[in-house]
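About this split. The held-out portion is used to measure sequence recovery: a designer receives only the structure tokens and must propose an amino acid at every position. Recovery is the fraction of positions where the proposal matches the reference. Here is one held-out target exactly as it appears in the evaluation file.
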């Protein structure tokens, strides 16, 4: 009997972003409609809402397929995902006109300047967060579905 481990790995991987994305959508609606913020953030939120869960699912499928050869823990494997998402997100945001890269800072929506040092600090925090989420949540769901 075929137990479809890659399908279960994909479904396990998309769980977390699928649960979190509605929270981002709620925050977007409150900012845009409730507080009347005129920054065109819909250009920066629609694309990730569709793409991030799919990337997480494929990333977990990659872990499932490579785990027997690499023996990486699911937490450590998940920690590498921001190294893919940051350049991909930067590329998409610059081409969509949402982000401009300056010499010392990035400029979001032509109005918000973020120094690169703060971006590096946030990236380090994201690495820690990804490790914890992948180790405890995705790893738990992988065990429940019998693929870990």
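Reference sequence for scoring:
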């Amino acid at each position: 009997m075929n137990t479809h481990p890659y399908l279960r790995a994909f479904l396990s991987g998309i769980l977390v972003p699928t649960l979190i994305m509605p929270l981002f959508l709620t925050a977007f609606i409150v900012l845009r409609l409730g507080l009347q913020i005129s920054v065109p953030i819909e250009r920066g939120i629609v694309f990730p809402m569709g793409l991030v869960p799919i990337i997480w699912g494929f990333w977990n499928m990659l872990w499932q397929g490579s785990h027997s050869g690499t023996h990486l823990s699911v937490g450590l494997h998940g920690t590498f995902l921001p190294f893919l998402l940051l350049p991909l997100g930067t590329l998409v945001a610059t081409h969509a006109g949402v982000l401009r890269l300056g010499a010392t800072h990035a400029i979001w929506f032509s109005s918000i300047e973020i120094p690169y040092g703060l971006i590096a600090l946030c990236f380090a925090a994201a690495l820690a967060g990804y490790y914890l989420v992948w180790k405890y949540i995705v790893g738990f769901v992988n065990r429940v579905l019998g693929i870990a």
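Annotator remark: The chain has five helices and three strands.
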